[in-house]
Amino acid sequence: MSPIAIVTASDSGIGQEAAKELAEEGFDVGITYHEDHDGAKETLTVVEEVGRRGEVRRLDLISPDLPKAANVIDELADSLGGVDVLVNNAGTGDPTGDFLELSYEEWRRVLDTNLDGAFLCAQRAARRMVDAGNGGRIINITSVHEHIPRIGASAYGASKAGLGLLTKVMAMELAPYGIRVNAIAPGEIATPMTGAEDTDPHTMERLNLPLGRPGHAREIATWVAFLASNKASYATGASFVVDGGLMLMAAELSS
User: Fold this and answer.
1) Of the four, 91, 114, 184, 234, which is 20 to 30 A from 13 by CA?
2) Domain total in the chain
3) pLDDT given at position 210
């Protein structure tokens, strides 16, 4: 039986590329989307073209009944026959704005999606993994702003920092069950969230980055595939920063 991965928000960007990469590595893939059903179907087509099974479900992490929304993880696991890997990729980058002006409703929406939603999906998947007794891998997509602040992004930074620490606690608690939990913390990636979905990042100059450009979603997907594999068998509780050298610039600016 093929291993099974569920990738949330795999209708575009990092999630879509991660789903494709995992399918190429032999995984059957559970695909979720929030609004872009066509994007999810596109991902499914690619998964099936490489000979793997796929299932598509809508996942709404801004639902008033958030715990019920996470039922999608169980539905996909039932349809595919289990879950060996969860990639917690669903998230939002909005809003941005002054802390003094940020409404509680906006704050709550970001944390519901980026932190509460990720917690619920991971918990559902982890329970399945524990019951199956075969171990597993959970990969949380955070952000470089899990580690460094950005003015105007208090809700986003808090949600990603929270998910980063949740990753570490999960790693400690789930290790006895053979479940490894890690985070990937991307820097600027050319995706719909950054308004550069169809732009070749090699053509986008970023003078403030050592590598001089944003990343491509595929460059994060390769890390997802690595952490999902046995090649990363001794890694758990870590946050792998993949940011083109952005964090290095903090030291440069302070010198």
Assistant:
1) 234
2) 1
3) 75
Residue (of 18, 19, 24) closest to 44 by Cα position: 19
Is residue 229 one of the residues assigned to a domain? yes
Whether the Cβ atoms of residue 242 and residue 219 lie closer than 8 Å to each other: yes
Main-chain dihedrals φ then ψ at residue 136, nearest 5 degrees: 165, 180
Q: The CATH number of the domain where 86 resides is what?
A: 3.40.50.720
CB 135 within 8 A of CB 82: no
- The span from the first CA to the last CA of the chain, in angstroms, equals 54
Domain extent, residue 31, equals 4-198+214-245
Check: CB of residue 183 under 8 Å from CB of residue 164.
yes
Residue 34 domain-assigned?
A: yes
Peptide bond into 95 cis (omega under 30): yes
Annotated active-site positions, please?
156
Residue spans of alpha helices (H) in 112-216: 117-132, 154-174
**Closest C-alpha among 20, 2, 3 to residue 11:** 20
Token pair for residue 102?
């940020």
- In angstroms, the CA 157 to CA 127 distance is 28
pLDDT value at residue 194: 47
3-state secondary structure of 61: coil
Measured CA to CA in angstroms, residue 225 lies from 15, 143, 145, 178 at distances of: 12, 18, 22, 18
- Domain for residue 134, yes or no? yes
pLDDT tens digits along 141-186: 999 999 999 999 999 999 999 999 999 999 999 999 999 999 999 9
